[in-house]
Amino acid sequence: YPCHHTRETQLSEFNLTEIEAVLGSYTKVLFVRDPFHRLISTFMQGMGSSPSFSSFVQDVLDSGPRNASMAWKPLVSICQPCLVQYDYVVMFGFLRQELGYLLQRAGLPVDNLLPEFTDSQVQWTYGWLSEQMFSELSLQQKQQLSRFYRWDLAAFPFSSSFLAD
User: Fold this and answer.
1) Predicted confidence (pLDDT) per residue in 62-103, tens digit
2) Dihedral through CA 156, CA 159, CA 161, CA 163, nearest 10?
3) I want to staple 18 with a disulfide (CB 3.0 to 4.6 A). Which of 14, 36, 57, 87 is the partner?
């Protein structure tokens, strides 16, 4: 959208007509990841100051969805999938296949542009790690996390998520 488009311009700075024009002029791709895996990744990267995963999760729950860090904030509140008509939703674990498809749809050479991804190769690690980390949580924390991410779990197919039960 050429009229106001600069790197610094936030979508919220446009009026509704301009927002519709901007969003209509782009191919919109949303990248999603199991919210529990996002929590594990954030904790493992040391982005929380908690000594244990359980205390980190409690800090997340205490912050609430509105005050949550972008690293663990529910995706639905960040990306607004009910308001924005995304053309593609790409799930972590399938990046190579799905990005290959997107490049092909755009008429670009897939082999030359697509880097090697390890997301599908680390899925088994996240399965094991999820099991270990989930077992550290109290029943109350598990239930609260499921409520915290309920809209993400409803909006995206995270059927194998530990939080989906």
Assistant:
1) 999 888 898 999 999 888 887 788 888 888 777 777 888 888
2) 80
3) 14
* Closest alpha carbon to 19 in 88, 84, 112, 113: 84
CB distance 32 to 156 below 8 Å: yes
CB 81 within 8 A of CB 73: no
* 89 DSSP β-pair partners: 30
Distance, CA of 26 to CA of 71 (rounded, Å): 25
Q: Reply yes or no on whether the pLDDT at 148 is more than 90.
A: yes
DSSP one-letter string for 10-63: -GGGS-HHHHHHHHHTS--EEEE--HHHHHHHHHHTT-S--SSHHHHHHHHHHH
Distance CA 33, CA 152 (A): 10
CA angle centred on 12, ends 6 and 18, rounded to 5°: 70
pLDDT at res. 1 = 44
